[in-house]
TrEMBL record:
Comp. bias intervals (Pro residues): 18-44, 64-78
Keywords (A to Z) from UniProt: Hydrolase, Membrane, Protease, Transmembrane, Transmembrane helix
Biased composition (Low complexity): 45-63, 79-96, 106-133
Name of this protein: Trypsin-like peptidase domain-containing protein
Stretches for region Disordered: 1-151
Length: 527
């Protein structure tokens, strides 16, 4: 890459004319001037004004010869490099699960990497004439000689400098050391260097076990980037994240990460050390948005991530998210738990069934590609599976929206139960109350519909709701200790329990409040 000063010629003496003047008849030292007259000499005829040198040419003043031609004007400054301008897309409020990240084409990656930073300043100045005339000014070094330092010309190309800094910021890990060395080498060798070499850093530096860096270093080898490709002709797919669940090679992730490859597609998992393994689907739960994969020819040194207790998480607890946002594998971000028991309903955008969760909300940066990745607590234990975000709209240069600090994770206690079901039977088990509720109305509770799909009863005969005395038209306003404001909120809370659990229900009938207790039933599979 080039920077603003790289390869630039040493500026010529601005006091010298562009064309050498005609030498005097006697090239030796000019005769001493006559005694100064008593009156000041007459004003000489008007001539072309010479540029004022930046430094005196010599201690002894010499006669100023008349120039044979006007001095060559300095070349115009090259145009400033174009600075990138962020274009804000229209803001549209959306709620969606984190979609798998489409892979960028090689042309796009090459274009991003080759953004030019115009830096070379071309100075056009003729060389001195043969024969030694005019002699080089004593205070100015010869062309290109590394003698005394030349005062740096004022910077006029702010755009070019900004462009160079932007490129350096993107690739600093690869060329940062080189740029630092080059900049130091351009200075006067006699000046004291302020560059601190890596050998001067304390050799005994160690990170404390509880730092983010230490937790990330321990967790990253157990996190994988998942590549999913459909079985179609075009092989469409995307990128997501998962983490090692056990030593047998099971990987936990989101269902919407692997859904495109579940029927005849291909799956692979890449670890942080770059090793890639083929994988297959063990089971999927659309409603929970959880899936379990198993590595083919799994290595024998797998280290499962420890699982925490999401019920004990408190608002304000620190969080660490690991994933592959927009395909950038092994990305680590931090935040806190912003809220608990946040009801979230999301779809995969491909016509599949919605998923419902009573989510952990975090402000750790989560983007498309983070889907299925672990949300860790301050001890490095998994407390959730990153699954969905609330966004204002599509981000710059992307067809998918990005993080605004509203991320949602499936609580790990729920995810663990689902994963165990999928590993054992390949199918999920859902707790149910045996009643159909309105999924559209919000704010007043979850209303039991007058009838079900296709004219079927809205309350299953002899089911949990029927046994609890609930009837069509009842409005459920509380489930356990949680307030219910809609049908999706009710389902999110039901699915945090297990079949057979007894839960207190608060409801209204004809405007009068009442309570009852329901024992949850079960449904196996997504169909």
């Amino acid at each position: 890459m080039s920077t603003e000063n790289e390869g630039a010629a040493v500026p010529a003496d601005q006091g010298a004319p562009s064309t050498p003047p005609t030498p005097p008849a006697t090239p030796a030292t000019p005769p001493a001037p006559a005694a100064p007259p008593s009156a000041p000499p007459a004003q000489p005829p008007a001539t072309t004004q010479e540029p004022i040198p930046a430094e005196p040419a010599a201690a002894t003043q010499q006669p100023t010869p008349a120039p044979t031609s006007a001095p060559t004007p300095a070349p115009a400054s090259p145009p400033a490099s174009e600075q990138p301008t962020a274009i804000q897309a229209p803001l549209t409020e959306t709620t969606a699960p984190l979609p798998p990240t489409p892979q960028p084409t090689p042309a796009q990656a090459q274009t991003a990497a080759q953004t030019p930073a115009h830096a070379h300043a071309h100075a056009h100045s003729p060389a001195p004439a043969a024969g030694g005339w005019p002699p080089a000014p004593p205070a100015t070094p010869a062309w290109g000689a590394p003698a005394a330092p030349v005062p740096e010309a004022p910077r006029k190309r702010g755009g070019g400098l900004v462009a160079a800094v932007l490129v350096a910021a993107l690739v600093a890990g690869g060329v940062g050391g080189g740029i630092g060395y080059w900049a130091a080498s351009q200075r006067d060798d006699s000046a004291a260097s302020t560059t601190v070499s890596s050998g001067d850093a304390p050799s005994s530096f160690k990170r404390d076990p509880g730092t983010v860096a230490a937790i990330a270093a321990k967790a990253l080898p157990s996190v994988v980037t998942i590549q999913a490709k459909s079985g179609g002709v075009e092989g469409e797919g995307g990128t997501g994240t998962g983490f090692v669940y056990d030593k047998e090679g099971h990987i936990v992730t989101n269902n919407h990460v692997v859904a495109s490859a579940a029927e005849g597609g291909t799956l692979s998992a890449t670890f942080s050390n770059g090793k890639t393994y083929d994988a297959e689907v063990v089971g999927r739960a659309e409603g929970y948005d959880v899936a379990v994969l198993k590595l083919k020819n799994a290595p024998g040194n797998l280290t499962p991530l420890p699982l925490g207790d999401s019920d004990k998480v408190a608002v304000g607890d620190s969080t660490i998210a690991i994933g592959a946002p927009f395909g950038l594998s092994n990305t680590v971000t931090t935040g806190i738990i912003s809220a608990k028991n946040r009801p979230v309903a999301s779809g995969d955008g491909a016509g599949g069934k919605n998923s419902y969760m009573s989510a952990l909300q975090t402000d750790a940066s989560i983007n498309p590609g983070n889907s299925g990745g672990p949300l860790l607590d301050a001890s490095g234990a998994v407390i959730g599976i990153n699954s969905a975000i609330q966004s204002t709209g599509s981000g710059f240069g992307q067809s998918q929206a990005g993080s605004i600090g509203l991320g949602f994770a499936i609580p790990v206690n729920q995810a663990k139960n689902v994963a165990e079901q999928l590993i054992k039977t390949g199918k999920p088990v859902y707790p149910v109350i045996g009643a159909v509720v309105n999924m559209q109305d919000r704010g007043e509770g979850a209303t039991i519909a007058e009838q079900g799909t296709g004219g079927t009863p809205s309350i299953t005969p002899n089911g949990p709701a029927a046994k609890a005395g609930l009837k069509p038209g009842d409005v459920i306003t509380g489930f356990g200790d949680h307030q219910i404001d809609s049908g999706p909120t009710l389902i999110s809370e039901i699915w945090t329990h297990q079949p057979g659990d007894s839960v207190k229900i608060t409801y209204e009938r004809a405007g009068k409040p009442a309570t009852t207790t329901v024992t949850l039933g079960e449904r196996t599979g997504d169909n």
